[in-house]
Amino acid sequence: MISRILLLVITVFLTGAAGAQTTTDSVQQVVRQLFKAMYAGDTVLLRSVLAPGVELRTIRVVQGREPEVQVEPVAAWLQAVGAAGVGDLDEQIRGGMVQVDGSLAAAWTPYRFYYKGVFSHCGANAFQLIRTAAGWKIFSITDTRRKDDCK
Predict the structure, then answer these.
(1) Which pLDDT score is estimated for 112?
(2) Which residues pair with 143 in a beta bridge?
């Protein structure tokens, strides 16, 4: 009888541990929520994954010139997402990786972006997140954009 109880306790413990979400899973979930919010045009969901003071940047590459960092206004991005119809902003991530050190996480996600079903551009996103009492929040997004060499 004791061995059956012990087996039951071990099974419950292992099942719970197997279903537990890892830190990496938690970070990935926040990034997926951002893309889900964009796809749905849902600024409430989008704001829920962003830290106060979030910064957006794009690495611009113009032929014959040095690459430059362009700061994107967050308010304009939120307005564009809110004005979009469902499915208009479809950023499809292609794999990626996550690194975590305490309360800092970084996620790298190659992507292809479609606007209203038409391919627009591809590139990579570099997210930086902070672990808060409310969970992981994105405080910085930097991306690249190009129309060619999109594997």
Answers:
(1) 97
(2) 58, 125
Phi-psi sector, 116: left (phi>0), alpha (psi -120 to 50), beta? left
User: pLDDT tens for residues 4-16?
Assistant: 443 333 333 333 4
Mean pLDDT, residues 82-99 taken together: 95
Q: With b meaning 16 or more CB within 10 Å and e meaning fewer, what string describes 99-133?
A: ebeeeebebebbbbbbeeeeeebbbbbbbbbebee
Higher pLDDT, 37 or 19: 37
- The share of the chain scoring above pLDDT 90, in percent, equals 78
Max CA pair span of the chain:
78
C-beta neighbour count of 89 within 10 angstroms: 21
Q: At 32, list the tokens.
A: 């997926």
Q: In which element (H, E) is residue 89 found?
A: strand 89-93
**∠ Cα 95 89 67 (to 5°):** 65
Helix (H) or strand (E) holding 136: strand 135-144
Look up residue 124 and give its amino acid: A
